[in-house]
Amino acid sequence: MKVPIIRQLFENVAPEKLEATLEVLEAFCEFRGVHDSEVDVAGELITNICGALEVHEQVKNGAGEREALNAFSQKVLGSIDR
Asked: Cβ distance 52 to 25 under 8 Å?
């Protein structure tokens, strides 16, 4: 997870395009010939896209961009600590 990338995706890409990209990356990870290193890269991209989508949703519901980015970061870091 990289907050600057999430911010860039949030600012420059519509949620519909992020969702379509997410579907493609998830399907890619399920292909039989995909190596672990490729899945790791796709997983990082998926995390960043999900972060941007969540920021879009939180901003739509009234949160500030910075607040939404921090909330997503804390959510991810909190899940790692478990």
From this structure: no
